[in-house]
Amino acid sequence: MATRTTARARASTRLDKADLLDFYRLIYLSRKQDHKEIPLKRQNKIFFQISGAGHEAVTAAAAKVFRAGYDWFYPYYRDRALCLGLGMTPTEMLLSAVGAADDPNSGGRQMPSHWGHKALNIPSSSSPTGTQFLQAVGAAEAWLRYSENADISDRASQYKGDEVVYCSAGDGTTSEGEFWEALNTACNLKLPVVFVIQDNKYAISVPIEVQTAGGSVSKLLTGFPGLFIQECDGCDPIASYDVLVKAVEYARARKGPALVHAHVIRPYSHSLSDDEVHYRMPAERAADAEKDPLTAFPAYLAQQGIASEAELEAIRVQCDEEIATATEIALASPQPATDTIYRYVYSPDVDPTSEQFDTEDDPRFTGEPTTMVDLLNACMKDEMARDPRILVFGEDVADASRDQFLGEVKGKGGVFKVTWGLQKAFGGNRVYNTPLAEANIIGRAIGLATRGLKPVVEIQFFDYIWPAYMQLRNELALMRWRSNNAFSCPVVVRVTYGGYLKGGAPYHSQTGAAIFTGVPGLRVVCPATALDANGLLRTAIRSEDPVLFLEHKHLYRQTYNKAPNPGPNFMVPFGKARVVREGSDLTVVTYGALVQRTLVAAKELEDETGLKVEVIDLRSLSPVDWETIYTSVRKTSRVIVAYEDAMSWGYGAELAARIADTTFAWLDAPVKRVASTDTFVAYAPELEDVILPQVGTLKAAMQDIVRF
């Protein structure tokens, strides 16, 4: 069962006068920064403001307990005093507020109070509440993976052995499902993460009793095994320090995770866009004011004879001067140059579209032709042997979660056997199962990648990727850009995709590439052959960008797309399409399962009419090889875009629009699309055949466009 204690305010024996005065300095400096930003926002000199008021005591204490640049920090927007205590300066914070080019948090790309600092081990934080929980768990999990893998050459620079991860949030954010997923995994793996819940009793206007059953999140958590729970007055830095010391010592000793439930106040509205007078009673606000650490703590220091009024005033004067100087510097600092917006959408150092990744003209074939499943598996084996940083995890990907039975069972290795044998070859520290929770997989992968590991994770079915979409869209794809290249997450997300399996029905046949190709920062590929799958996956693993790797289930074991093993250095670059059939009368641009159907339709049409259809397999959906497409269309003057997504609003719509816009002068007919119906995929085979594009559908479209 979880351990639960409540600490009372007392003069800690670990703190001396200098420590207590530093608490006051951080509390005052943090509040003074808020007080400077509020009028700047009203003067339109900054453009957003959210304060850490009322939360300063516990976060100032945390800064003294954790180790800057040694431990890892996943703060939230009210952690101003923490960041100041760790070493972030008021100037750096105000550079963020004005959106300056020199802002170390994001280079002017994020709102202020979205903390991020490379030197201090503060990965870039974002606006969605709760996404930090699973990333923090992943960062803590990095300790576990490094500790059991001595083959990683730079392990000493990435892993300390006793580092702890700080992760904070407000009480309202504990309503997010990812909070509970994070606690589950942290307790299950006994990870060194300390969750600090700063409970000011409000999530904007929603009070705690509406958010949390019983009104106390820590009371709900007592059933979590090994979770060390501490509760404290978060307005008292001494009490907060005492419980944080216990929590950090527990985690640093590798006993498991801890949670500090700190009761704080929110003396101001949620942000300057909110007015708490509309929903909070005056008496409640007055009671909060009495607890305010800005006034209560210096009064305590004076009453106890710890500090004189002159000493306290000297601190205030010093902080006032520091804020004034920081304001002058920030307001005079230049904004980012407008031509920098495209920087760091992708890695500036490793280009997976370059010749460095193009070895497909020199395969070193061995063995008999085999399936896409086998060549994907072979690629991962080769890459895991080459790079000990690679971790493979997801639902059912291991051979057996219980290592002691590995020698007695055949092994699972994924529902389609793509990862079969990897755990037996590389061990349970590098290949392992996760809970059935897609956000858990991606969130942890982000934290692991941030700390230098290389997750190659599996989402079992594209149909069930949606719980992870927040992590994929708002976190994984944005990390490099929003941090101005301070942090990156080169994660490979493998996911089975598509229909054409009898009985797949609505929830095992889904497509929807456009939902992901429309996300800047994310590479998306979809191989149609075993050989391309092997080469593209190797490129994905060796690149430094996040990659969504779509594996079409229907193609896993087809005989027509088999190939021998091309060797451990075979790579297909992203953004390089392949002309799989030469032609002169019509171009078909396609990918995935429709490549073979298009080839069959094209051959039938040529046999019947003599018309020669050129077929282009995109292979890479983002980036796209536009030049190969345009060259073909200029030659044939007619084009069909064929794709498995629904006709309307699908991936092919963008292809058709770009082709029409760029090659209009060469076209002798409108750009035509062939796609699935604007419905879901049905279970009955007769219905599925009508819904999904077939050879006959493609052939009829070819005949129509030639007759135009």
Describe the structure in your own words.
By secondary structure, the chain is of the alpha/beta class. Helix 10 links the parallel strand 7 and strand 8. A 7-stranded mixed beta sheet has the order 11-10-12-13-15-14-20, sandwiched between helices. A 6-stranded parallel beta sheet has the order 1-7-8-4-3-2, sandwiched between helices. Strands 17-19-18-21-22 form a 5-stranded mixed beta sheet, with helices on both faces. The termini are far apart. It is built from 25 helices and 22 strands. Helix 2 packs parallel to helix 3, helix 14 packs parallel to helix 20 and helix 21 packs across helix 25. It is elongated. Helix content is 39%, strand content 15%.
Keywords:
seven-stranded mixed β-sheet, 15% strand, 708 residues, 25 helices, alpha/beta
What structural category arises from helix and sheet content?
alpha/beta
**What fraction strand?**
5-15%
Mean pLDDT: 96
Q: How much helicity do the residues have? A: 25-40%
Uncertain parts: none
Largest sheet: 7 strands, mixed
Distance between the termini: 74 Å
Radius of gyration: 29 Å
Strand order, main sheet: write it out.
11-10-12-13-15-14-20
How many DSSP H or I helices?
25
Spatial shape: elongated
